[in-house]
Amino acid sequence: MLREALPKIVTGTLPGPKAKAILDRRAEAIPKGIGTAYKAVIEKGEGAMFQDVDGNIFLDWIGGVGVLNIGYSCPECVEAVKEQADKFFHSMFNITTHEGYVKLAEEMNKIVPVKGDKKKSMFVCSGSEADENAVKIARNYTGRPNIIVFTGAFHGRTTLTMTMTAKKAYAVGMGPFPDGVYRAEFPNLYRAPGNMSEEDAIKYYINKLKEIFIEATPYDSCAAIVFEPVQGEGGFIPAPIEWVKAVRKICDEHGIMMICDEVQCGWSRSGKMFASQYFADAGCAPDIMATAKSIAGGLPLSAVTARAEVMDAVTGGTIGGTFGANALSAASALKVIEVMKRDDYPAKAKHIAEVGMKRFNQWKDKYECVGDVRGLGAMMGIEFVKSKATKEPDAELVGKIVQEAMGHGLMLEAAGTYSNVIRFLCPLCVTDAQLEAGLEILENTIKTCAK
């Protein structure tokens, strides 16, 4: 059974003949701008594994870039979608109400850790749309134009979210960009200036944020501060809780909305259903949360949740979209919530993190090229450098590791401002044997490529 299989390459080299033929057709039919980093053509997937059209079996540590926390082809989600498909595919929600949307909103309002006793949720299709709607809601509620985002941030590929995104490789030739978006330094403790202690580094980054209100936007013109509890594309950098407390205090004192972008770090990945739960437990919950990716097990869906007074202040007709909480996606999402609660997916993430971080820290001590390991739950990153002393990023090494590992059946993806971080986004249903196989492939690959 593929769900229990281990990585196996049967074609010797990649891509195999069938995959190559399809990739050649892709090159002819599809814009180069979409990009393709991997010579893989999937035929079917189960759990943390997929099989390509040539019969090669891969362990997937990318998981659709965080979409497959519940795994490929979760049987219960498949059945839920089939059952809904027998009734109807779609009903635009602001035309005809369907109960799936209502039930999903009710579930989100129970589990999303934002400020307020009474909450409301809305749905769109992608992480970019969720982030953009979160900003629209904050601007509408506060009556203010500006937002603050951070270095290392990734928020999407719409015009607004490209502006919010730090790495401008994602926005080449796409300007002009909208005004009112200002950038502060994210608290990357590994790359803090000098040899600061963690405490001093957090103070430094808090002060850098406060400077934005002097040099970029006054407090009373700022609608929201937007950040990822764990940066994704930025290199899997967790926001330190003391820094989050300071952000929350600034927001409370000046009527600013704190928005958490949990598009990638949500849905059990962090060791809780949402990483913002750690903030809520520490008394610094966000005002608005955007989430997507793993929400519906692979179907397109995203959500924005906030307290009722914030959501109900929004001008009618300014938020939403045609396919938000499409009936099939809503059915799958309801099943995702049920299964993740029942099978304690946050505990699965914690177990994976315990196994993975133990090994990663051993590699940090063992290999000069491993500069830092970090993460929250099973959202883990390994930063590769040319020297521990200089911390010079080594993107070339990471590129070699990604390609070498693929040749042994392990799918990896790079991240980080300098593309020198290997990120771990394996489905949380991975078996212990599969996890061990992946760790062995990765360490052997590091040895080979670092020579």
What does this structure look like?
- The chain has 451 residues and is α/β, with parallel strands linked by helices.
- 39% of the residues lie in helices and 17% in strands.
- The protein has 14 helices and 17 strands.
- The strands form 4 sheets. It has a 7-stranded mixed β-sheet, sandwiched between helices. Strands 1-2-3-15 form a 4-stranded mixed β-sheet.
- A hairpin with a 4-residue loop joins β2 and β3.
- The longest helix has 22 residues, at 345-366.
- It is globular.
Any idea of the CATH topology of the largest domain? Aspartate Aminotransferase, domain 2
Helix content: 25-40%
Number of E strands: 17
Radius of gyration over C-alpha positions, nearest whole angstrom = 22 Å
Under the CATH scheme, which architecture of the largest domain would be assigned? 3-Layer(aba) Sandwich
Which residues sit in consecutive blocks of at least 5 with pLDDT less than 50? Answer: none
The helix count comes to: 14
CATH homologous superfamily label of the largest domain: Type I PLP-dependent aspartate aminotransferase-like (Major domain)
**Average of per-residue pLDDT values:** 96
